[in-house]
């Protein structure tokens, strides 16, 4: 039998209390998430969330209603000021990677030598995305001390949006959330087995990204033609030799492609 009870109405609890010095989102309007991994996190969070609660969550995040935010292994905890005297405590939880998943992560990073440097430098390599990012909305759990039993409520939604911004800016936070330390990952990558080290001592089997296709442009095309001719003229007898020297330069640069 379908439950036809009306949705709870919380207007009687009053308006949210303003906060001084709250953790206001950098995003002032539009969508959250500027990187590919940030946008994917937002899509996962919004996929099954109630549109009204998600909208209010964005408003709470942008107006600085989140008083504190802490990302730990498997959980993000935030204090969010609502209409009550004391802030509500909202959490966003996700399972930490197990030993098998961490081993798989280490193997992927070992196969892609540049991915660890890329991660430490502030970007999530797409090859690591399926392991580091939630597999879907069901991988996230929300909780809050407020009376709303929405999934998520606006307070937890605000915490989730600010979390995406933190991970957007510093992807190492996703490692923390999934229970992986960067030092642990570096140690795992550098500690491979003796058999692996001997078999591919020089990294001959490493898969490197393809070089980008670029249009050929000889260096002489970027030089001031008058200055180039003047320089060559100093060692040539006449203008025909100057023209021949410039043609030779172009030929040489064609061979250097």
UniProtKB/TrEMBL annotation:
GO terms for molecular function: zinc ion binding. InterPro entries: Znf_SWIM (IPR007527). The keyword Zinc applies. The keyword Lipoprotein does not apply. Keywords: Metal-binding, Zinc, Zinc-finger. Residues 129-164 form the SWIM-type domain. This is SWIM-type domain-containing protein.
């Amino acid at each position: 039998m379908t439950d036809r009870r009306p949705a709870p109405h919380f207007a009687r609890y009053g308006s949210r209390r303003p906060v001084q010095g709250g953790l206001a989102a950098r995003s002032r309007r539009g969508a959250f998430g500027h990187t590919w991994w940030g946008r994917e996190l937002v899509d996962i969070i919004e996929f099954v969330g109630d549109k009204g609660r998600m909208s209010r969550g964005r408003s709470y995040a942008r107006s600085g209603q989140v008083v504190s935010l802490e990302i730990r292994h498997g959980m993000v905890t935030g204090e969010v000021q609502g209409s009550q005297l004391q802030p509500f405590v909202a959490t966003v939880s996700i399972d930490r990677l197990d030993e098998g998943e961490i081993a798989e992560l280490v193997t992927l990073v070992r196969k892609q030598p540049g991915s660890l440097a890329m991660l430490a430098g502030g970007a999530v390599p797409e090859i690591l995305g399926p392991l580091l990012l939630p597999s879907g909305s069901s991988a996230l759990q929300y909780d809050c001390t407020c009376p709303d039993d929405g999934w998520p409520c606006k307070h937890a939604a605000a915490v989730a949006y600010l979390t995406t911004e933190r991970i957007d800016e510093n992807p190492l936070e996703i490692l923390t959330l999934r229970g992986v330390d960067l030092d642990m990952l570096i140690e795992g990558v550098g500690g491979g087995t003796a058999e692996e080290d001997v078999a591919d001592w020089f990294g001959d089997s490493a898969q490197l990204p393809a070089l980008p296709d670029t249009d050929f442009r000889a260096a002489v095309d970027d030089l001031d033609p008058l200055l180039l001719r003047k320089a060559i003229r100093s060692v040539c007898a006449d203008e025909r030799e100057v023209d021949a020297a410039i043609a030779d330069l172009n030929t040489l640069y064609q061979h250097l492609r």
